[in-house]
Design a protein that fits this description.
Blueprint: E1 2-6, H1 10-20, E2 26-31, E3 44-47, H2 52-62, E4 67-70, H3 77-90, E5 94-97, E6 109-113, H4 116-123, E7 129-133, E8 149-154, E9 166-170, H5 177-186, E10 191-195, H6 204-212, E11 215-219, E12 230-231, H7 234-245
């Protein structure tokens, strides 16, 4: 059975590694190509976009794909929607692998917002020194905030406009809690801005913000396509793939 894993996440790499050691499974992982030096999964890998729903549909047919696993980042809404549409057109089984989002804990001061624009509007009213941890895309949404200072952390440098007052910190998680506590103190951070990505690779910043009593602007995930089959961990998806292969 030939499976396309739309990847880029730790869960996608774990699934590819499991399937690579099993007879009867032919796995191709696809990465968007937005990170300059990505962590590559085991097995065959393609990099780059497909060209919308039509391009993805053609690729699935040309490559004889039997099943599709959407294990992209929780904020990769466009490819998730395209995958659902293309798989439905071809009547291919598809599952969305999404790790659970973060849960607010006692002492947290979260302000949930629906998108980047709402986050930019909110932080302008909360403080003057902002820790921006949303990745490299979307930073331009904050470029119009000229009074605030931003610490921008990302794996690669953002493209496009940046806030006029900023420091760019290039780093890849996981991050240690004590290091995050020190970073907030050293940069005198007032507000943390992040996406509700979930997982344990970058959640140390939330603990650090809780300890410091800082507000966290939490950007909600985009919705998955209506009626989507959603699983929360690799074990569930692996069971689903084995059932599909029977």
């Amino acid at each position: 059975m030939k499976t396309l894993i739309l990847g880029g996440t730790r869960e996608a790499r774990e699934l590819a590694a499991i399937a690579a050691g099993e007879q009867g499974f032919d796995i191709v992982s696809s990465l968007a190509g937005r990170v300059r030096d990505p962590l590559l999964p085991v097995g065959a890998v393609r990099v780059g976009g497909f060209g919308g729903v039509e391009g993805l549909r053609k690729w699935l047919v040309d490559n004889g794909i039997d099943t599709v696993v959407d294990a992209t980042h929780p904020f990769a809404g466009i490819i998730s929607a395209n995958a659902a549409a293309a798989a439905a057109d071809l009547r291919l089984p598809l599952v969305h692998l999404r790790r659970p989002g973060w849960s607010e804990q006692h002492g947290d001061r979260w302000i949930r917002v629906p998108d980047l624009a709402a986050a930019a509007k909110t932080v302008a009213e909360l403080g003057n020194r902002i820790f921006l941890t949303i990745g490299r895309q979307g930073v331009g949404t904050f470029a119009g905030l000229t009074s605030q200072w931003f610490l921008i952390r990302a794996i690669d440098s953002p493209a496009g406009a940046l806030p006029p007052q900023h420091e760019l910190l290039l780093a890849r998680g996981p991050f240690a809690i004590e290091d995050e506590v020190q970073l907030l103190a050293d940069r005198r951070i007032d507000v943390l801005v992040t996406k509700d990505s979930g997982g344990d690779q970058t959640d140390a910043k939330l603990t650090a913000a809780r300890r410091a009593g800082l507000p966290v602007v939490m950007i909600d995930r985009p919705p998955l396509p209506e009626g989507a089959a959603i699983m929360e961990n690799v074990a569930q998806v692996w069971d689903w793939l084995r059932s599909a292969a029977e």
